[in-house]
Structure to design on (404 residues):
């Protein structure tokens, strides 16, 4: 009887071992199939964005590997647990063993997790180190976060511009159908050549922002007063989209990051065009405009820079952002109006636009505000007036600086 029981037990163990071996073989086949279908996984709607740089691919593959390890741990742990519960339940006559410490078991369940963690930590550390190596760039771009847009300075090319949300207000307010790239489109995307190592110097002007481009494997906080750096090398021509990934205030969700990757020839043409636009903007600063021209231009500047807070109708948000329609600033002395736009209001969300807008754009937006809605002031500001106001502000600061 005892010999028969031993034989039966041995057969059960062998069958269990065969079943476990078969299960691991199937798991191995599934794992191999998963690893071999990285590109297909990347295209899946509920996965990470399709990688467009080597770092992003490394991150994507590491993500899938860690997920596979987690699935394996889940299967082993819960499989063993449910098997034990089922095979050793009281209803089949099993009696619980009575023992305390078991050195072998404790060593095993300490060593195995340690080996797994080290196995996951090594490739993760390798990728993090690679992400932080910003040496030997082909070009450098300073990225500055503002409430709520991005500023780009191409240090090698001498180009500077702002990138602002381009989604029409009608779509945001729900009065028009949402477009394909709703809240992920800008008026001026960052443009880089394909295959070039781009170093990013990331900071912020007001609060903490975060420049995030998933397809390149880049996410770096921009902190006021600090310069943080990152890098990417895009290996596919196309347009790539991300968002500010740090809660930065009221319009945090309206601050997309868009990068357009182009060929070397197209990049050179873009640089030439931007430099031509800068020259045209400089020429505008010396022009005298008709009032109608200023109002039309000022409306565009207002929609891109002011409407987020003060609203398209100029009524603001009570308790948060004051109205411009009928305000003492927009209907008061024109010099005071210019001063507010140039210098902002310290201690409030009203930022200085002295470094963000040209003299012509500031003249236009001030003129627009004084003509729009119920204001109807009838006066106008020229770029020369803004230049004089800038000089006056500098002169007023100089004696204080000398006293220090």
């Amino acid at each position: 009887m005892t010999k028969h029981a031993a034989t039966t037990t041995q057969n059960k163990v062998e069958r269990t071992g065969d079943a476990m071996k078969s299960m691991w073989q199937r798991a191995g086949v599934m794992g191999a199939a998963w690893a071999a279908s990285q590109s297909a996984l990347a295209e899946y709607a509920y996965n990470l964005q399709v990688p467009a740089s080597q770092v992003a691919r490394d991150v994507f593959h590491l993500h899938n590997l860690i997920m596979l390890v987690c699935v394996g741990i889940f299967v082993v742990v819960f499989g063993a647990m449910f098997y034990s519960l089922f095979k050793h339940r009281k209803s089949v006559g099993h009696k619980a063993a009575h023992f305390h410490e078991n050195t072998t078991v404790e060593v095993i369940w300490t060593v195995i997790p340690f080996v797994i963690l080290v196995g996951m930590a090594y490739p993760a550390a390798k990728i993090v180190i690679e992400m932080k190596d910003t040496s030997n760039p082909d070009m450098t771009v300073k990225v500055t976060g503002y409430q709520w847009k991005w500023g780009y300075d191409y240090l090698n090319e001498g180009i500077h511009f702002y990138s602002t949300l381009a989604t029409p207000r009608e779509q945001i307010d729900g009065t028009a159908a949402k477009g394909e790239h709703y809240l992920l489109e800008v008026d001026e995307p960052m443009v880089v050549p394909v295959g070039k190592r781009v170093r990013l110097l990331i900071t912020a002007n007001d609060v903490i922002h975060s420049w995030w481009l998933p397809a390149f494997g880049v996410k770096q906080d921009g902190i006021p007063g600090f310069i943080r750096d990152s890098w990417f090398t895009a290996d596919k021509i196309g347009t790539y989209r991300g968002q500010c990934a740090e809660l930065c205030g009221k319009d945090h969700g309206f601050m997309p990051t868009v990068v357009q990757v182009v060929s070397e020839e197209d990049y050179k043409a873009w640089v030439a065009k931007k430099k031509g636009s800068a020259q045209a903007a400089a020429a505008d600063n010396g022009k005298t405009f008709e009032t109608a021209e200023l109002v039309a231009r000022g409306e565009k500047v207002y929609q891109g820079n002011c409407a987020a807070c003060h609203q398209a109708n100029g009524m603001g948000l009570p308790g948060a952002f004051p109205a411009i329609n009928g305000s003492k600033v927009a209907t008061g002395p024109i010099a005071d109006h210019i001063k507010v736009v140039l210098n902002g209001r310290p201690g409030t969300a009203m930022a200085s636009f002295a470094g963000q807008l040209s003299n012509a754009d500031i003249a236009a937006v001030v003129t627009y505000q004084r003509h729009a809605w119920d204001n109807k002031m009838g006066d106008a500001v020229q770029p020369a007036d803004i230049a004089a106001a800038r000089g006056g502000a500098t002169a007023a600061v100089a004696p204080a600086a000398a006293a220090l």
